[in-house]
Design a protein that fits this description.
five-stranded antiparallel β-sheet, about 475 residues, five-stranded mixed β-sheet, alpha+beta, 13 helices
Length: about 475
């Protein structure tokens, strides 16, 4: 070990040690201990300065967080005197942090009711550590009361004694404005969703226009022919009645009656009138069906027989397609669900149309197998086609908005997505898979209703 050089003070101390009779080794030991103490003091001072820097950084961080808070923050002691605030509170009440320190918190409250609530929280001997939600009216810079939704949380010392209260709150007007904006955004989203649903429905209806025109042409032509016949009959009856009023003889009336074929006219009138009424009623049924399908559906739900919905969908799809189709479908027991008949018809029509498009080709007749049955507390409709099926990479995407495998202009990619959303809103599930025996299969699963069906239809005639 190298001996440390002796300083002038050390030499002096050693000389003194010789004078006082103390040996040099003892004094060297004392001097070494003094150097160690001094070195420790220097190290402690450096550590203390480092702690002070860290403390200042922590205080700066806390101050920046409190300043950045949009909620008002106030800390008071057990007597209700303000110890700390943040910038949001100072801005609200129009006073600086220095001016607020030591001020009773009650001076910031705008009415006696708020002061009573605050007093009740401060005087609570057993406060909840989770705090208490209280609405207070704070006095703003102009002296007006501002409703603030606050949370008053007690703070404690290390030994568990209550040291004061922390108040954190947000002006209720801001919350109401945020809620109002959220509600407006929600209503706008609902409107957009309803418009999108209606647009897709009208697009489906557009594909049926040709079939609907033919469907309407038959009863209208029948009514028109009957009306022409009734017009001729009314002219004959008018001539005969004029002759009666003119006082013609019985012989003249008999001859006129035979010439005008009044007997045949009278026998034919009931069938003409009945046929005209039937054609008019058939036209009214078609128009009402179109109106019901194209109208924006109300929010209400009712008991609906899914078989009747399927019958209507089959009828309209048959009218809207020119391809040859072999459909295996037979109505069985009522399958009653709770929902919107118009929306469910849109789902079934979309599934049928997609099945027609997928299975029907120039070389192949589309063959569809459709069934609907009650299975416990569920109603399940299964639709299978004889097409090529769904590629595996598309199975997980077919219900995505705007996803379509059809050529441009042949599909929007919204039909299955909207149908999926409608089924979800009805508490059901719409799924797809490739059937083991070939082709694609869609399953519509809906909760079964115990109510009787309010929505019924007459069986649709077989398409021509």
């Amino acid at each position: 070990m190298t001996e440390r050089p002796k300083s002038a003070n050390t030499e002096a101390l050693l000389a003194r040690a010789h004078i006082e009779g103390v040996d040099e080794a003892t004094w060297l030991d004392v001097i070494q201990r003094m150097d160690e103490v001094y070195s420790q003091l220097v190290s402690d001072e450096i550590a203390l300065e480092q702690k002070n820097v860290e403390l200042e950084q922590s205080q700066q961080f806390i101050f920046s967080v409190m300043s950045a808070m949009s909620d008002v923050l106030l800390v008071c002691n057990e007597r209700g005197e303000i110890e700390e605030t943040n910038a949001a509170l100072c801005e609200l009440v129009g006073r600086s942090d220095d001016a607020l320190r030591g001020t009773p918190v009650f001076a910031l409250l705008a009415d006696d009711e708020s002061r009573a609530r605050m007093r009740g929280v401060l005087d609570d001997a057993n406060p909840s550590r989770r705090g208490e939600a209280v609405e207070l009216n704070l006095r703003d810079a102009a002296g007006a009361g501002v409703p603030v939704d606050t949370n008053l949380t007690p703070r404690f010392t290390r030994n568990g004694r209550r040291a004061g209260t922390v108040l954190v709150g947000r002006p209720t007007a801001e919350l109401k404005r945020a809620y109002h904006e959220l509600r407006e955004a929600h209503e706008a989203l609902k409107l957009a969703q309803q418009q999108l649903l209606h647009s897709e429905k009208m697009a489906s209806l557009g594909r049926l226009v040709a079939g609907v025109a033919h469907e309407l042409n038959n009863p209208i032509s029948f009514v028109l022919g009957n009306v022409h016949a009734l017009k001729k009959y009314s002219e004959r009856m008018g001539r005969y009645i004029d002759a009666v009023h003119a006082g013609a003889s019985d012989a003249e009336l008999a001859a006129l009656r035979a010439a005008l074929r009044i007997e045949h006219l009278l026998k034919d009138l009931p069938s003409l009138i009945e046929g005209t009424m039937e054609g008019a009623q058939r036209t009214a049924d078609i128009v009402n069906g179109l109106k019901r399908f194209s109208a924006v559906d109300p929010e209400g739900r009712s008991a609906v027989d899914l078989n009747a919905v399927i019958e209507r969908a089959i009828h309209w799809i048959h009218k809207g397609t020119s391809a040859a189709v072999a459909l295996h479908w037979a109505t069985r027991e009522p399958c009653v669900v709770t929902g919107s008949a118009g929306q469910l018809q849109q789902v079934v029509m979309n599934l049928l149309q997609n099945a027609y498009d997928a299975a029907g080709t120039e070389d192949q007749v589309a063959e569809l197998t459709l069934s609907c049955a009650n299975e416990g507390d569920r109603v399940r409709m299964r639709l299978r086609d004889n097409g090529p099926g769904i590629p595996d990479e598309y199975l997980s995407r077919i219900f995505e908005p705007f996803f379509t495998t059809k050529p441009v202009g042949k599909g929007t990619g919204l039909g299955l997505s909207i149908s999926y959303g409608i089924v979800e809103q009805h508490g059901g599930v719409l799924s797809a898979r490739n059937h083991p025996e070939g082709g694609a299969e869609f399953v519509l699963d809906l909760p079964r209703s115990t109510a009787g069906p309010a929505e019924t239809t007459r069986p649709c005639p077989a398409p021509p």
